Amino acid sequence: MHRPTLLTSLTLAATVAAGALAVVPSAATTTAPYLNSHQPVERRVNDLLARMTPAEKIGQMTQAERNAVDGDQAKITELGLGSLLSGGGSTPTPNTPAAWADMIDGYQARALATRLRIPLLYGVDSVHGHGNLVGATVFPHNIALGATRDPELVREAAHITATETRATGPQWVFAPCLCVARDDRWGRTYESFGEDPDLVTSLETAIDGFQGRGAGQLDRPDRVLATAKHFAGDGDTTYGSSAGDYKLDQGVTITSRERFRRIDLAPYVAAVREHRVGSIMPSYSSVDWTEDGVGNPVKMSAHHELLTEVLKQKIGFDGFLISDWDAINQLPGDYPTQVRTAVNAGLDMFMVPYSAGKFEQALLAEVTSGQVSTARIDDAVRRILRAKFELGLFEHPFTDRRYAGTIGSPEHRAVAREAVAKSQVLLKNDHRALPLDRSQRIYVAGANADNPGNQAGGWTVSWQGASGDTIPATTVLEGIRQYAPDTAYSLDASAPTAGYQVGIVVVGETPYAEGVGDVGNHGHTLALSAADQANIDKVCSAIATCVVLDVAGRPQIVTDQLPKLDALVMSWLPGSEGGGVADVLFGERGFTGKLPVSWPRSEAQEPINVGDRDYDPLFRYGFGLTTRH
């Protein structure tokens, strides 16, 4: 592997320090077609591919976590890494836009010190805003956006997320999730737009928000490469089919091919053919076809039929497939077998966070022995290089920081606040309890009324998220006080309630992510907590008008509490802009949100979905009362 000379290293360091946005090729390489931005992308790809050794190609197929190389950044050059990522909570210190950009530019300089100077692609989980960055605009999670039924608003939210993300360095986001959530006990329910594939498909405008509406926009400083995930069926797994403590996540989708096509696959057809999504992440989950008898599930990372025959060949996907975190380690066999199986199934880039060197050695051995063909490697690398050229990384590998000043700006937060307001679903409104009057004496109780971390949920600053003051935010309580400054607050409803006209109890969940949040794992349940139930009982028995807000990533069981309430609002996980909840409570905006999932009467009723035989939820899919502005 070529090592940079001292002069080259000093030049690169000076380039980074100066914040330069382009790398000037040396005289020896200026005639190379792949370095000529005036050449067509495909010619550039083919030219570069023809110059690469097998080891260099495999390096492009390898993605490491930044923590694996941060202490010894020479590994980026030595391994010829094609990509790095920040997992949930993997951030620079301090966690600021400038520190992010400086960090990634430093990594990029190491990549540009390789023989062919192929730039890095850097990925992050910007699933509801640039969630790893403290101070970024934090949007409601996807399930709330599903309640808005507003494709243009979803596109705008994704565009803001792209702008804030790329201004700090990453050019690639692992979003949007196109899962169709068919069982609300799943810990990733909030990452889904809803239970109906048509609803999910309608909100794939998020892809346009990330990448741009047409071809040729990826190289702009306000766009990022999008990732449709998790292909396919991850929201449709059977309860109890997962390994370990998980109950649904990473489980098995037991289905016929026809049902799979209609429910699970449909959103990806539109993502590829209508929105030209640049990358797709296969799921950890498996598929077990019912046509040939249940009992022989195949992991998606090993599924040649779905990854290559269906997705790439039949649907026509020409982007690249990126594995999930260490996903190949879940495949049968020893490590070389796992690598060989996944590559031959159709995976193009491998998220191997802490084993990049081991992966590269194993894959090179498989190619050398003929177990993996050179044609398969070339196909994978061609797809990856195409994305890098379209992103403009060869001309502008370092961070374009021109939009850094817009991160968390009032303008961006205003869009997030609009999304919050439009996502609120009014489920009950007896005696015209809502909208509220600013002159009413209001008493607020509950753990989720004044907790930024709880209202943001998982994938916020860290993987699982956390309760408390984790992000700059307007809490639900603060939003209410913008309209009624004298509003009282008691966490546990222990403060006196006499004299108040309206009681608002804010109940819900604490943060979780992925299978950790599956019902039945670590005590997670759809039931309201004992503290939430006690607060409802105290407030609703003492104050004439009682309103309950549910701040959660999925429906909770409220069947027994419902008769005690005058009004019930599903607030979802609103993110940083709790003022949007208050906007509809006080009639500044009307309630317009509609349920993107069916609301069960009991936990035992799950899974329940629109179109089921004997469909009898507490609240039907699409239900939502309205009020006028």
TrEMBL record:
<comment type="similarity">
    <text>Belongs to the glycosyl hydrolase 3 family.</text>
</comment>
<protein>
    <recommendedName>
        <fullName>beta-glucosidase</fullName>
        <ecNumber>3.2.1.21</ecNumber>
    </recommendedName>
</protein>
<feature type="signal peptide">
    <location>
        <begin position="1"/>
        <end position="22"/>
    </location>
</feature>
<dbReference type="GO" id="GO:0009251">
    <property type="term" value="P:glucan catabolic process"/>
</dbReference>
<dbReference type="Pfam" id="PF01915">
    <property type="entry name" value="Glyco_hydro_3_C"/>
</dbReference>
<feature type="domain" description="Glycoside hydrolase family 3 N-terminal">
    <location>
        <begin position="56"/>
        <end position="386"/>
    </location>
</feature>
<dbReference type="Pfam" id="PF00933">
    <property type="entry name" value="Glyco_hydro_3"/>
</dbReference>
<dbReference type="InterPro" id="IPR036881">
    <property type="entry name" value="Glyco_hydro_3_C_sf"/>
</dbReference>
<dbReference type="InterPro" id="IPR001764">
    <property type="entry name" value="Glyco_hydro_3_N"/>
</dbReference>
<dbReference type="InterPro" id="IPR036962">
    <property type="entry name" value="Glyco_hydro_3_N_sf"/>
</dbReference>
<dbReference type="InterPro" id="IPR051915">
    <property type="entry name" value="Cellulose_Degrad_GH3"/>
</dbReference>
<dbReference type="InterPro" id="IPR002772">
    <property type="entry name" value="Glyco_hydro_3_C"/>
</dbReference>
<dbReference type="InterPro" id="IPR017853">
    <property type="entry name" value="GH"/>
</dbReference>
<keyword id="KW-0732">Signal</keyword>
<feature type="domain" description="Glycoside hydrolase family 3 C-terminal">
    <location>
        <begin position="425"/>
        <end position="626"/>
    </location>
</feature>
<dbReference type="GO" id="GO:0008422">
    <property type="term" value="F:beta-glucosidase activity"/>
</dbReference>
<keyword id="KW-0378">Hydrolase</keyword>
<keyword id="KW-0326">Glycosidase</keyword>
